[in-house]
Automatic annotation (TrEMBL):
Transmembrane segments: 20-36, 48-66, 104-126, 158-177, 208-230
GO molecular function annotation: electron transfer activity; heme binding
Pfam family, one: Ni_hydr_CYTB
InterPro entries for this protein: Cyt_b561_bac/Ni-Hgenase, Di-haem_cyt_TM, Hydrogenase_cytochrome
Gene Ontology biological process: respiratory electron transport chain
Localization (cell): Cell membrane
Source species, domain of life: Bacteria
Membrane topology: Multi-pass membrane protein
Protein's name according to its UniProt entry: Cytochrome b
Species assigned in the record: Thiohalorhabdus denitrificans
Residue ranges occupied by any Cytochrome b561 bacterial/Ni-hydrogenase domain in the UniProt entry: 13-189
Lineage: Bacteria, Pseudomonadati, Pseudomonadota, Gammaproteobacteria, Thiohalorhabdales
Keywords, ordered alphabetically: Cell membrane, Membrane, Transmembrane, Transmembrane helix
Length: 231
């Protein structure tokens, strides 16, 4: 099936909790970047945002095991051959459509989760050695905390590049080469396909939404509570 066959049948793909996670993470990363540049007055909010990011990453990892079909890692993580085949087809103008993430997009998701989680985690131990300390500074040996502190600043530069490439792929590459809008479905939860793509359509009930929201709240509470107790 070619990209020209897209655009006729409306299919549910992304559940509500996953979309809430996605856009909340986007907002928190942006806020974390901005607040981190504002100095001491915004540092408490910066650290709270980082802890929220940790809670959201924990939710996404668990939702990747117990969430709706296309949110699960088993639905989109694949070996290198499938990743290469997908990219080759995209470059040749014969993209393979997927209801959820394709193999390449799936690994991009995992990379971003890893980097965002590591960035937020290292921030717990970050310090300017003057006025601002992360909530867990002093709980680990000094050499380990020094390494995590340095990693917090280095990882952010890497994260900016990876997020930039991800945005470029979503906003420019896929719409241009695959004729596929990836942004709208992450807002509405629906894709438009002319015929069946790889995977089966999803149906969402209130049970999925409630389970996802409860899990998200539980992950956020566990992170905030755990950090408060450890600090």
């Amino acid at each position: 099936m070619t990209s020209a066959s897209f655009g006729k049948r409306r299919v549910a793909v992304w559940d509500g909790p996953l979309r809430l996670f996605h856009w909340s993470l986007v907002a928190l990363i942006g806020f974390g970047w901005w607040s981190g540049e504002q100095g001491l007055d915004w540092m408490d909010a910066h650290m709270l945002a980082g802890q929220a990011v940790l809670g959201l990453v924990a939710f996404r990892l668990l939702w990747g095991l117990w969430g709706s079909r296309h949110a699960r890692f088993a639905d989109f993580l694949a070996g290198p051959r499938r990743v290469v085949a997908e990219l080759r087809g995209l470059l040749r103008g014969r993209p393979e459509p997927h209801l959820g993430h394709g193999p390449a997009g799936g690994w991009a998701v995992m990379l971003i989760l890893l980097l965002v989680g590591a960035q937020a985690f290292t921030g717990l131990f970050a310090s300017d050695d003057i006025l601002t300390d992360g909530p867990l500074v002093g709980t680990l040996p000094g050499d380990i905390e020094s390494f995590l502190n340095s990693a917090h600043y280095t990882l952010f530069d890497v994260l900016l590049w990876v997020v930039g490439l991800h945005v470029a792929a979503v906003v420019v590459v896929y719409p241009l080469l695959a004729r596929e809008d990836l942004v709208r479905p992450m807002i509405t939860g629906w894709k438009r396909l002319a015929s069946a793509a790889t995977g089966r359509p999803e149906r969402f009930g209130w049970g999925v939404v409630l389970r996802g929201l409860l899990l998200m709240v539980a992950c956020l509470a566990a992170v905030y509570g755990g950090i408060a107790a450890a600090g």
